[in-house]
Amino acid sequence: MATAKKKASKSKSKSPKPKSRRAKAIPQLKNSAALADMDGRIAIVRDNLRALVEQAASYSGASDEERMSQRIAEQEAKLERLKKQRDELARAL
Q1: Who has the most CB within 10 Å: 2, 29, 79, 84?
Q2: How far apart are alpha carbons 12 and 8 in whole angstroms?
Q3: At what angle are helices 62-92 and 20-58 packed, to 10 degrees?
Q4: What is the C-alpha to C-alpha distance for residues 34 and 23, in angstroms, rounded to an integer?
């Protein structure tokens, strides 16, 4: 009889843990990973902008300047979009 009580108590202790903690943690981890990814993408765009500005300073000629200005403007727009997306992700955490 003692073994029957032990088996009964063991079966009760093996009940699954509540999923509420785990359910909350998984989206936060995904958001954290997405936030880290977004930070990396922002860093890349900032580096691109820095390199473009350096190149623009070394070029001379109207066509080169116009092309560089366009590339810089595109990178600045991309940076602004990424920063907005990052802010939205950060608020979701």
Answers
A1: 79
A2: 7
A3: 170
A4: 17
Q: How far apart are CA 83 and CA 33, in angstroms?
A: 16
CB atoms within 10 A of CB 2: 6
Q: Could you give the dihedral angle defined by the CA atoms of residues 58, 64, 66 and 67, in that order, rounded to the nearest 10 degrees?
A: -100
Tens-place pLDDT, residues 29-81: 677 888 999 999 999 999 999 999 888 888 767 778 888 899 999 999 999 99
Instruction: Supply the pLDDT for residue 15.
Output: 52
Instruction: Round to whole Å and give the CA distance between 8 and 3.
Output: 9
Alpha-helical (H) ranges within the chain are: 2-13, 20-58, 62-92
